[in-house]
Structure formats: C-alpha cells, structure tokens
Specification:
By secondary structure, the protein is an alpha/beta fold. The protein has helices spanning 19-30, 42-54, 69-83, 106-136, 159-179, 205-218, 223-234, and strands at 10-14, 34-39, 59-63, 88-91, 141-146, 184-191, 194-195, 221-222, 244-247. Helices cover 47% and strands 17% of the residues. It is globular and about 50 Å long. The protein binds NADPH dihydro-nicotinamide-adenine-dinucleotide phosphate. NADPH dihydro-nicotinamide-adenine-dinucleotide phosphate binds at residues 14-21, 39-41, 44, 64-67, 92-96, 115, 146, 148, 191, 193-194, 196-198, 223.
Length: 253
C-alpha cells in the first residue's frame, strides 16, 4: 500500500462545516478515506459532503453539537450505523472568544471550555472503543487533536483560549501513554494564524481588527495547508507517530 493512500480508512472530523475541519474532510476523502463530517450547521456540512461526493468520495453529514452529550452519542450511533468502526478521529471543533479577563465574560469562558476541552473529551469517549478495536484488528488508528500555537505562545487577551488549547496539547501528550502501547497513534496539531471563520464569532470590532492587524504582519495559512498536514501524518506507516506538529505562516514567529 502506498503511504499516501487512506483507502479503507474511516474518519470522523468534528467542526467540518467550515475552515480547517472542512478542508481536512476534503483532504482525507481525496486520499480515499470515507468521512463522517460533524458540526451544528446542516447546510454547510451538506455543501462539503456534496463536494466530496462530486469528486467520487464517500461522505456523511452528521449534525452534532460537541457541547451536548446526547448529541455526540447520537452522532456516534449514526456514524456506526453508516460506516461501522471508525479508525481516524480528528477533534477539530473549536471557538475562540478573546475578550480581556477584566471583562469577566464567564459566558465566553464556559463556551470555550465546553467546546474546546469538554467537547474534545465527549468525542474521545464516543470513539475510543473504535480506535482501540481497529488497532487490535491490525488496522491503522489515529486520534488527531487540533490545538493551537496559542497553547505555547502568549497572545495578550487570549488567556482562556490559550488555556483551553494548552489543555488539549497536554491531553494529547498524556493520551499517547495510554494509547500508544495499544497501537493507536495520537497527533497534536498546533496551527498558527489560519484563514477561517474563527474570528467571525468575536463580538467586538476592536478585537477583530486586532486579529486583522496580526494577519497583516504575519500572513496566514490556508485551511488547506493544515489539512495537507493532517493528510500527511495519518498516512504514515502504522509504526510511525508524528506526535506534535506546529505549523505556522513563515512570517509568524
Ligand atoms: P471555523 O470557525 O471556520 O471552524 C470551527 C468549526 O467548529 C466549524 O465547523 C463549526 O461549525 C464547528 N463548531 C463550533 N462549535 C461547535 C460545537 N459546539 N459543536 C460542533 N461543532 C462546532 O474555525 P477554524 O477552522 O479556524 O477552527 C478549527 C480549529 O482550529 C479550532 O479548534 C481552532 O481553535 C483551531 N485553530 C484555528 C486557528 C486559526 O487561526 N484559524 C489557529 C490555531 C488553531 P458549526 O458552527 O456549524 O458547529
């Protein structure tokens, strides 16, 4: 089998309605995986699914909210019914709401923690059995968590977002110790500034302009650049695990 070939693999990608998740779903499908796309916006998921099918790929849209236990469980049932056991999970759904801590936006903190951290855990719980079972059968099995360079680098006012991503990075690190001995690979991806809809949810013109200013200085990655990386790490030979990948626009230091 070619190392570039993901045919025979079955993937779940969360946050696949836009940005990095949509690009990852397209890339995995283009490499031959069948892909279940999870997010809350049905219409946006369907658009990506149609693109995959138009290219000859196999895809399924599953409306799911990672902040809701029952929704994630129902999504897992739908994926299992359509595709049976999953062997590639990309935990990508996330939100970034960067008001300064002085503003005391508990609503934003809770939303980020529930989506970026607990959401990742809900998805993990739903598909851990699949990954372990797939690996036990001799298949390649991957858990890919999309963290952020914000897990390491200080961006003023991004304290809580950075903390959620630091949690994802540490989670990935420790999970390798649990999963590696059972042949399940864990990869933590830390992108830098990437052109997506992530900043659209910020309800402050000033904070959005701050991001535009940063992008003007550093340039930005395309979502496809990050997707390319996910396609690469998941198509390595089974005994090779890229555990931590940082990908930045060249001018972002
Ligand atoms: P987007 O806003 O374009 O994508 C976020 C995705 O997550 C959407 O598909 C959205 O779909 C989904 N999502 C949000 N909340 C939920 C929820 N509760 N349940 C299910 N799905 C949800 O931004 P990005 O592509 O940039 O974000 C993807 C990941 O990349 C995030 O984890 C982000 O933190 C990370 N990242 C992004 C960087 C950047 O510069 N853009 C840099 C570093 C990391 P829907 O609204 O339909 O649910």
């Amino acid at each position: 089998m070619s190392y570039d070939n993901l045919s025979g693999r079955t993937a779940v990608v969360t946050g696949a309605a836009s940005g990095i998740g949509a690009a990852v779903a397209l890339r995995l499908a283009a490499r031959g995986a069948r892909v279940a796309l999870l997010a809350r916006r049905a219409d946006r998921l369907e658009t990506v699914v149609e693109k995959i099918r138009a290219g000859g790929g196999q895809a399924l849209a599953v409306v799911a909210d990672v902040t809701d236990d029952a929704s994630v469980r129902a999504a897992a049932d739908a994926v299992h019914e359509a595709f049976a056991t999953v062997d590639l999970v990309v935990n990508n759904a996330g939100v970034m709401l960067p008001h300064p801590v002085d503003d005391g936006r508990l609503d934003e903190w809770q939303r980020m923690i529930d989506t970026n951290v607990t959401g990742v855990l809900r998805v993990l719980r739903a598909f851990t059995g699949d990954l372990v079972a797939a690996a036990a059968e001799g298949r390649t099995a991957d858990l890919v968590n999309v963290s952020s360079i914000g897990a390491h680098v200080v961006f003023p006012t991004y304290a809580v977002y950075g903390a959620t991503k630091a949690a994802v990075t540490q989670l990935s690190q420790v999970l390798r110790a649990e999963f590696g001995p059972r042949d399940v690979r864990v990869t933590n991806v830390e992108p830098g500034l990437t052109e997506t809809e992530l900043a659209d949810h910020i309800d402050s013109d000033e904070l959005r302009e701050q991001i535009d200013g940063m992008l003007g200085t550093t340039g930005r990655l395309a979502a496809e650049d990050v997707a390319d990386l996910v396609g690469y790490v998941t198509s390595r030979p089974r005994h090779v695990n890229l555990r931590q990948v940082v990908v930045l626009p060249t001018r972002q230091v």
